[in-house]
Amino acid sequence: MAPLLLLSLSLLVLASASPSPPADEGSYIGVNIGTDLSDMPHPTQVVALLKAQQIRHIRLYDADPGMLIALANTGIKVIISIPNDQLLGIGQSNSTAANWVKRNVIAHYPATTITAISVGSEVLTSLSNAAPVLVSAIKNVHAALLSSNLDRLIKVSTPLSTSLILDPFPPSQAFFNRSLNSVIVPLLSFLQSTNSYLMMNVYPYYDYMQSNGVIPLDYALFKPIPPNKEAVDANTLVRYSNAFDAMVDATYFAMAYLNFTNIPVLVTESGWPSKGETNEPDATLDNANTYNSNLIRHVLNKTGTPKRPGIAVSTYIYELYNEDTKAGSLSEKNWGLFNANGDPVYVLRLTNSGSVLANDTTNQTYCTAREGADPKMLQAALDWACGPGKIDCSPIKQGEACYEPDNVIAHANYAFDTYYHQTGNNPDACNFNGVASITTTDPSHGTCVFAGSRGNGRNGTSVNITAPSANSTTSSGIRSDLYYSRGIWSILTVMILNVANLL
Questions:
Q1: 438 by DSSP, 3-state: which?
Q2: Does residue 57 carry a pLDDT above 70?
Q3: Which of the residue ranges 67-71, 175-179, 337-341, 424-428 would you say has the lowest mean pLDDT?
């Protein structure tokens, strides 16, 4: 009985060492993930980037099973979507909706933390023939969740375009396009009855472009403006220093016009393009950086809006990757924060703004073997990292870039640091039963470039890392038998001894 107890305790210690995501603190920043790329990264590479950038909330434009599998047990919260081309079938059939929920939600939840379902996107402005079935589709999906006791855990809504709001400034005069009230009123009624939120796509860039100079660029970019340049709502005398807040408040007022006053707003898309055609001179790297950096700061500071101060509006940035195959103008392809290879399109200016999307490499940290650590403990931890830890240890095999120097300390340095960065630089991931510690000294040497090294330009992902496939046991997709076969037993042996000493 004692050996079994010791084995169970050792496994418990091993499991408890795994990092867990931090709890949400009210408002948050998420990121949309589009897939119109000529070289779309594998889902596990996408997840590795999310972890490295500490992105805890994402929105998908579908319910891709590969992504949902890759997101399992990561703690990353995801909004999945029903594409517009599936809306009619789901809106006309309860069974179609139930099958969709069974296949795309129940099959993955709760391992994958699905928090909401987006039923279509901007349906009322982009797919008018589906407008009559939009609310039916939403209700059918909710009914399917209800039958599985998931209705209180997973919200259902649909993103609307702010173009539906007429007379948006001053915000106190805003109202929804009355010709669509037959859809909008029952939609808001449903959201209120289910404690869901109104999803809105808010783009100050487009409002600025279409204003013919009426909206100042600094006002659209969240840049500081003098009081005499602020926009004043003549009805409420409230002052607005940025277009984003004015648009969100216009949404609140438009709902209030229809007697809905307690539905929160979730901004499902907002961003700024980094490149555009000649007729889009303000689609630049600097403006995209300025807008997204200021937006992140604004949301995480929980300043709220003038109508609802202190009640921050969580927002999803559009988008994670530049989509080079997306239809439309040059700017349509250049809203991303990253290129397909994981390189940032620009380095966000987020000093003192938390860790999310801190994709600059200042104050970079690494995880290496602790000085004086027991070589046997190091070997056991190395074996675990290359086996159950599922990192790619091929670079430390003979003949590869990080094989030399051929000793347990050097190899453990590489394995520990790779695991640390794949878990988003979580301090808890740099422990390995006490034989590892965090350092600011870059351990890269020669052609061996460590994860997060300033030299590789990847900001948390390394040229030596191959993200794990959904069905693999190591990052390279090939089980590292060299380490795993002896490793699983050596680490259990060491941990059993440790637990025995504690007892």
A1: strand
A2: yes
A3: 424-428
Distance between CA atoms of residues 119 and 480, nearest Å: 42
User: Is the alpha carbon torsion for 62, 66, 72, 75 positive or negative?
Assistant: negative
What's the maximum distance between 2 C-alpha atoms anywhere in the chain? 79
How long, in residues, is the chain?
503
Residues 6+ apart with CB under 8 A from 497: none
pLDDT digits (tens, 9 = 90+) for 92-134: 999 999 999 999 999 999 999 999 999 999 999 998 888 999 9
Residues contacting residue 135 through CB under 8 Å, at least 6 positions apart: 183, 186, 187, 190
> For residue range 267-319, what is the model confidence (pLDDT) as tens digits?
999 999 999 999 999 999 999 999 999 999 999 888 899 999 988 899 999 99
Nearest-angstrom CA–CA distance, 130 and 85:
9
Residue of 157, 152, 148 lying closest to 102 (CA atoms): 148
**CB neighbours (10 Å) of residue 296?**
22
Looking up tokens 């997709």, which residue turns up? 477
Catalytic residue among 25, 122, 277, 404: 122
Residue spans of alpha helices (H) in 304-391: 375-386
Q: Report yes or no on whether pTM surpasses 0.85.
A: no
CA 310 distance to own-chain centroid: 23
What is the C-alpha separation between 284 and 502, in angstroms, rounded? 59
- Report CA torsion sign: 473, 476, 480, 483: negative
Query: What does DSSP assign to residue 144?
Result: H
Q: Is 120 left (phi over 0), alpha (psi -120 to 50) or beta?
A: left
The token pair that represents 236 in the structure block: 């409420």
The predicted structure's pLDDT at residue 431: 86
Measured between alpha carbons, how far apart are the two ends of the chain, in Å? 15
Tokens coding 276:
């555009």
Q: Helices 94-101 and 131-147: crossing angle, nearest 10°?
A: 60
Instruction: Give Cα separations from 197 to 78, 142, 244, 291, 313 (angstroms).
Output: 15, 14, 18, 24, 11
For the segment 353-386, what is each residue's pLDDT rounded down to a tens digit?
555 665 543 446 778 888 888 999 999 999 999 9
Q: Which of 25, 230, 269, 323 is catalytic?
A: 269
Give catalytic status of residue 122 as yes or no: yes
Give the type of residue at 307: K
Tell me the C-alpha distance between 36 and 183, whole Å. 31
Of 462 and 142, the one with more pLDDT:
142
User: From its phi and psi, is residue 213 left (phi > 0), alpha (psi between -120 and 50) or beta?
Assistant: left
